[in-house]
């Protein structure tokens, strides 16, 4: 983490008396309120609104919705019999001799009209429809999985922008304080009450702060663009009130409780169902479809008309190397999908446990910082200023105490963001997992 110096400096503080000490207490007050609990602007986009906008904006979610509709439409079509085939023909037309190109002279010449119909069995048609229904369910499951990811990434982007804005706000406040101290150090140096080293220390602190502000400004721009990417909200973004990260009992629920409805697991289970439906269809496809044909043939007026009836039966002459192999392939695919589901359950269970542990650790760090380290940093700043005014502490030691306090405030912002990441993952999972949603309201 970059470090910088801030706060009052220079012997002029000794001559300013109560005013100098007042600025120190302003500095200390800024450290006394945990960054995660400070009031936010009343207007702006809150986290829930950002996530709702992201769901509406996601092109992939729209694509998966369209895939679901397409598969369901195909399921209806697959359950129907194939369309009949109309056949028109002119058979046995003479091409030479006295009757060439005549359609009524030769007794073998026939003008025919017929209709043919393939007759796939009802069980086969239902199997095809069931396959497309499983495809629709798989697309819907992928939609829910992607929605979970959109919610997670949007929430993380929202918290990241909030942290970036907090850093900029903290640095802006310290920059104003340092600018005043540089002016005071310059005045003290001109009057002979200060030393050139004090002025150099103040200027160095200011420029180091400016360097850190440039970095923080770049991070804020990146975070704002990330949130814009998900929500479509452009320009200067004001964030609403954040949720409390330490008041959600559902984050401690056993990870196994969420696995049956875990979006990633369900998406793979849906693909396994598709594979099993394809295997069922391949088993039925081992028996070929029959077709029937009815044809009426008209000859010359001197001859009688003819009616023909035909049945077509494909011969499975190489079933062992064709249909049986296809069935074996479909069954192997189903086994592969089942294995993926088992692995996904184990991975997801570990992932949830890691999120829970990471969140618990970050919240424990925040509690330690608020209970022990922030009060200690404030006490150190006040004690250092008193010693500096008494002439028993050097300027650099005073600046070091103030630097440590500000760095701690930035560290707290980062730790809070570390807590927000796993919290966002668990919250997104809870939002799209019925079993987890029933544990406790947000």
TrEMBL record:
One of its GO terms (cellular component) is efflux pump complex. InterPro entries: TolC-like. Keywords: Cell outer membrane, Membrane, Transmembrane, Transmembrane beta strand. GO terms for molecular function: efflux transmembrane transporter activity; porin activity. The keyword Membrane applies. It comes from the Bacteria. The keyword Membrane applies. SUPFAM superfamilies: Outer membrane efflux proteins (OEP). Signal peptide: none annotated. It is found in: Cell outer membrane. This is TolC family protein. It comes from Hydrogenophaga crocea. The lineage of its organism: Bacteria, Pseudomonadati, Pseudomonadota, Betaproteobacteria, Burkholderiales.
């Amino acid at each position: 983490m970059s470090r910088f110096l801030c706060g009052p400096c220079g012997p002029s503080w000794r001559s300013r008396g109560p005013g100098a000490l007042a600025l120190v207490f302003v500095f200390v007050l800024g450290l006394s309120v945990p960054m995660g609990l400070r009031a936010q602007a009343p207007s702006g986009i809150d986290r829930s609104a950002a996530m709702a906008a992201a769901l509406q904006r996601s092109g992939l979610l729209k694509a998966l919705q369209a895939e679901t509709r397409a598969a369901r439409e195909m399921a209806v079509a697959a359950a129907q019999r194939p369309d009949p085939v109309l056949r028109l023909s002119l058979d046995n037309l003479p091409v030479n001799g006295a009757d060439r190109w005549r359609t009524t002279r030769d007794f073998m010449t026939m003008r025919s009209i017929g209709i043919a119909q393939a007759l796939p069995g009802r069980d086969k048609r239902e199997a095809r429809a069931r396959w497309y229904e499983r495809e629709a369910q798989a697309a819907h499951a992928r939609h829910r999985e992607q929605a979970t990811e959109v919610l997670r990434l949007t929430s993380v982007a929202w918290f990241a922008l909030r942290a970036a804005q907090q850093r900029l706000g903290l640095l802006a406040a310290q920059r104003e304080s340092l600018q005043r101290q540089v002016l005071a150090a310059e005045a003290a140096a001109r009057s002979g009450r200060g030393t050139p080293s004090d002025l150099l220390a103040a200027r160095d602190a200011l420029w180091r702060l400016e360097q850190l502000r440039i970095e923080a400004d770049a991070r804020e721009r990146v975070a704002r663009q990330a949130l814009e990417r998900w929500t479509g909200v452009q320009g200067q973004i004001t964030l609403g009130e954040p949720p409390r990260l330490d008041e959600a009992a559902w984050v401690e629920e056993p990870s196994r409780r969420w696995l049956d409805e875990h979006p990633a697991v369900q998406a793979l289970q849906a693909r396994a169902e598709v594979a099993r439906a394809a295997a069922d269809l391949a088993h039925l496809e081992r028996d070929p479809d029959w077709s029937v044909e009815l044809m009426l043939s008209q000859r010359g007026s001197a001859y009688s008309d003819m009616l023909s009836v035909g049945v077509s039966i494909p011969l499975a002459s190489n079933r062992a190397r064709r249909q049986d192999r296809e069935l074996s392939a479909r069954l192997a695919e189903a086994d592969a999908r089942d294995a993926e589901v088992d692995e996904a359950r184990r991975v997801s269970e570990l992932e949830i446990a890691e999120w829970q542990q990471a969140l618990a650790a970050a919240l424990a760090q925040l509690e330690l910082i608020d209970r022990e380290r922030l009060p200690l940093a404030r006490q150190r700043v006040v004690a250092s200023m008193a010693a500096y005014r008494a002439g028993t502490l050097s300027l650099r030691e005073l600046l070091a105490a103030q630097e440590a306090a500000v760095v701690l405030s930035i560290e707290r912002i980062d730790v809070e963001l570390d807590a927000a990441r796993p919290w966002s993952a668990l919250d997104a999972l809870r939002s799209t997992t019925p079993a987890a949603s029933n544990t406790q309201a947000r």
